[in-house]
Amino acid sequence: MGSRPDEQIAMLLHKSVSAVKHRRSRLGIVTRKIKQKKWSPAEDQLLGSAPDSEIARRLGCHKFVVQARRLRLKIIAHRRSWKAKRTGCWGNCLTRNATPSLVAACRPFDTMPCWNV
What is the pLDDT of residue 79? Predict the structure, then answer.
């Protein structure tokens, strides 16, 4: 008691959590305080601007701490954006014997890499 969370002790002893809390308080054993990170507004601004692992490295904490804070504040995760090089391969392959409507429908795939080169 005091070295582990009450929930874990209750599970090990097959007792209710309230029974463990009551016994702990009767014995005068204080609960273990979990160290929580104090977030500054500047640190909150970093959330979502880069991957959680990178922000955690900058702040000197674990990436799951950053992820939990970002989720609590309902901030969307950072996604790296990339632009595919416009190869024109799909367009060239499809336009040989394609109708204009098929070419128009396949235009978004024009930036995909070409595997048959």
Answer: 82
Q: At what angle do helices 6-13 and 17-27 cross, to 10 degrees?
A: 110
pTM (global) more than 0.85? no
Question: How many Cβ atoms are within 10 Å of 30's Cβ, its own excluded?
Answer: 9
Q: Is 39 exposed, middle or buried (0-12, 13-18, 19+ CB in 10 A)?
A: middle
Handedness of CA 82, 83, 84, 85 (dihedral sign): negative
CB 91 within 8 A of CB 107: yes
Q: Where are the alpha helices (DSSP H) in 39-111?
A: 41-46, 52-59, 63-72, 89-95, 100-106
Task: Please give the structure tokens belonging to residue 3.
Answer: 């070295």
pLDDT at 4: 74
User: How much is the pLDDT for 44?
Assistant: 92
Cα distance from N-terminal residue to C-terminal residue, the chain: 68
